[in-house]
Amino acid sequence: MIQLTSIPRVAFFDAPTPVEEMTRLRAALGGGPRLLVKRDDAIPFAFGGNKARKLEPVVAAALEADADTLLTVGGLQSNHARVTAAAAARCGLRCHLIINGAKPERPTANALLDQLLGADIEYIATRDDRSAATRATMDRLRAAGRRPYEIPLGASNSLGACGFVRAVGELLEQIPAPDVIVHASSSAGTQAGLVAGCAIHGVATRVVGVSADDPAPSIAARVREIVSGIGLMLEAGDGLPAADSVVVDDSFVGGGYGVPTAASEEAQRLAARGDVLFVDHTYTAKALAALIAYVRAGRFDDEETVLFWHTGGQVGLFA
Prior knowledge:
Order of helices and strands: EHEHEHEHEHEHEHEHEHHE
Mean pLDDT: 96
Low-confidence stretches: none
Distance between the termini: 44 Å
Oligomer: single chain
Structural class: alpha/beta
Strand content: 15-25%
Largest sheet: 6 strands, mixed
């Protein structure tokens, strides 16, 4: 197997991120399993979050390719767009963002940070327009003499997901392997890295991705695709998990992407007023709502340890 350390990365922050007990949340739920949180929201670079981990190897590849511009796509309040713009600024590159949504009259939250970081922002109508806009913009930038490097949505390819294979190793240096990891899942890279990382590091931790938007079968299929790519990159195919081990729960999406639900709003209150954690409407509040529901339903044994991987997104609270 190829060593993970052989994959180049640009270090945007110093690991590890903290692991903390969620004692007050556990008490509010009347007991149950031990609850921990992995604080990727506390990553200091560009307000943190899971995208910083995935961009470390991806931006290294862009630099190796002698790129002068990072190009990516996202929604108006995309955490990924914000961290990509920050990565470009840190590395002395230009950044071009293709954002689906109307140009705001007064940008706030991530949209404001994108501008402050100096990104060139192109607005398109819908998600469906992303592919065509990306192709056209890549062609236009090349014709202008630029050297653009395309980063997929969420930096969610096999290279980006290796950031979370590495993160599993980081976690296991901090604590014994938890029985379960619950996290928000959307573009599938974080979940693929966690699933592959647990398998490569030889732990039986169950990884549950809670969808923020798409149906569970489509996210699970993408997770399996990325995991397969990780296996090829690391020559670790024999050690990767079976397809049926990919678990995605899409029952907490509610009214859609970024639309709060009663359960996600309750999760926000419990997290903030108990363990002083801030979770966002789009991703982490819905994932935490799922964890809360699982505990209340008795889905975990009291002897188990359940870890909530906080993937950031708190900037979106200021939109």
